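Pasting as-is:
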Amino acid sequence: MSRLLGAMSDRLLGAVLKEQSAGACVPEHGSPCKCLNGWQYIFDCNGICRWDDGRC
């Protein structure tokens, strides 16, 4: 029962207090970080090197 009440109160708070994000990314966002076996990797918004669809 307490779990149900907790979930309901979380939903109510979520409806009242809308979360807003700044939308800011690291300066390296979108720049290539490495080329491995012919596949390009780029920095994501958080600065983590991720696989991209492009070839290098």
